[in-house]
Design goal:
It is a single chain. The chain is α+β, with helices and mostly antiparallel strands. It is built from 9 helices and 11 strands. Helices cover 53% and strands 16% of the residues. The strands form 3 sheets. Strands 6-8-9-11-10 form a 5-stranded mixed β-sheet, covered by helices on one side. The chain has a 4-stranded antiparallel β-sheet with strand order 1-4-3-2. Helix 4 runs antiparallel to helix 5. The chain starts with 7 loop residues before the first helix and ends in a 10-residue tail after the last strand.
């Protein structure tokens, strides 16, 4: 299963969002604890002032009653009080400042013992707690908004930063593969992306020179090789028409003819594969697969002349493909040649269905470790099917045409190569 990989812009926006969230949480937490500590300090100062005021009044009038308002409550205990009028939760408190709940109400309490008596001063925190809750909600909303703003800013900034990269990617994506001359850096800035683009342009210049050399070589090789091949094929036709040749010599001439025809098809296939796209020369005419397959089977039967191997052809479907005939001939011929080369006894069955060609042999089979690199241009530790361009060339042709090549094999029991293709739609009869 393909793993999800977020875009660079999304990752930058997520990074900004996380940074904004972290800063907002740190600042919001500090503000929350600072406001709570400040509220406690203010309440403690108010309680200290009330205690001093009440202590002063007691010194002038020992019968003075403690304050009792909506937010402030005071108590005093004397040694001679057997049952003081003080909530029981206060009696065990030592000197200092405390927070506790009485009858479901939160209080801040100040306790001061002096001169045989203990003074208690309570401040109702209900209003303070309500304000702190509202402030906490305000902080949460601020944290969420800050995170969203940071994410939006990161998204906008990332878009500005990677815009040249996206422009460069669009130029490369929309560019024709044959166009290697127009520079990519014509409309880009002089920043780091511009430096990267100019590096690409220098690389394209070197690649253009390489492609020109390869193109010239392919054209020259095609011309220089086709001329002697045409001479060879013409000579073969003349020799085959000579009645004075004995059968042995005629077989040798036919072998030369088969080899020259195979070489001509191989050159045509390699030149076709060297083009960038299938549509470079227009859509090829429909090619009858059964006809090409029969030619390939008969072309390779002489390889089994001195082997106890029988090769059978089974055609169960009439298939026509929009493919250059040399490409199809080389693909089918390489599969059949591979089976003929590595089968020492038994049978080779070539079967044409409505959507595939399969070649089954009774050869040595292919080890599982070699299957993964069977169609690659390297030795890769192959010991049974050897090395060469045969099977890799079939894979190149299949990839170019949109076909699929597969192999099913068990060591010691042979192998089955299957070329799966997509038949061209039948043309209307007129």
């Amino acid at each position: 299963m393909r793993s999800f990989s977020p875009s660079l812009r999304l990752r930058v926006a997520a990074g900004f969002a996380l940074l904004g969230l972290a800063v907002s949480l740190a600042l919001g937490g500090w503000l929350h604890f600072a406001s709570r500590d400040l509220a406690n300090r203010l309440i403690d100062q108010a309680l200290s002032a009330e205690l001093e005021d009440y202590r002063a009044r007691l010194s002038r009038n020992p019968g003075s009653l403690p304050p009792m308002t909506a937010t402030l409550r005071g108590y005093v205990t004397l040694p001679q009080d057997a049952a003081p009028d003080v909530p029981g939760a206060l009696l065990d408190l030592p000197e200092g400042r405390f927070s506790l709940h009485l009858d479901g109400i939160a209080y801040r309490v100040a306790v001061r013992p002096e001169a045989g008596r203990t003074l208690y001063m309570l401040h109702d925190r209900t209003q303070v707690d309500d304000r702190e809750e509202r402030f906490a909600v305000f902080l949460v909303v601020g944290i969420v908004l800050s995170t969203l703003l940071a994410a939006a800013g990161g998204w906008w900034l990332a878009g500005r930063v990677i815009a040249p990269v996206r422009q460069l990617a669009a130029q490369v994506r929309d560019r024709d593969a044959a166009d290697l001359s127009a520079p990519l850096s014509a409309r880009l800035t002089t920043d780091e992306v511009g430096d990267l683009t100019r590096t690409f342009d220098r690389y394209l210049a070197r690649l253009r020179a390489f492609v020109e050399r390869e193109r010239a070589f392919a054209a020259d090789a095609s011309h220089e090789l086709r001329t002697p091949l045409a001479v060879i094929q013409g000579t073969v036709e003349v020799l085959e028409a000579d009645d004075r040749l004995d059968q042995r010599t005629r077989d040798r001439v036919r072998r030369i003819g088969r080899a020259s025809k195979g070489m001509a098809d191989l050159i045509a296939a390699l030149l076709t594969l060297s083009r960038e796209s299938r549509g470079a020369g227009g859509t090829p005419p429909l090619c009858p697969v059964a006809e090409v397959l029969r030619e390939a089977v008969e072309l390779h039967r002489p390889l089994l002349r001195h082997k106890p191997v029988a090769m059978a052809l089974e055609v169960t479907g009439d298939v026509q493909l929009a493919v250059e005939r040399p490409l199809l001939a080389i693909a089918l011929g390489n599969l059949i040649r591979n089976a003929c080369t590595y089968t020492e006894r038994g049978t080779i069955t070539v079967r044409l269905d409505t959507d595939a060609v399969s070649v089954t042999d009774t050869g040595p089979g292919i080890p599982a470790a070699e299957l993964r690199c069977l169609f690659e241009h390297n030795e890769c530790g192959r010991t049974v099917r050897g090395v060469g361009i045969g099977l890799p060339l079939v894979k190149r042709i299949a990839d170019r045409q949109g076909w699929e090549i597969s192999v099913d094999s068990q060591p010691g029991r042979g192998a089955t190569f299957r070329l799966q293709f997509h038949p061209a739609p039948a043309s209307p009869q007129g």
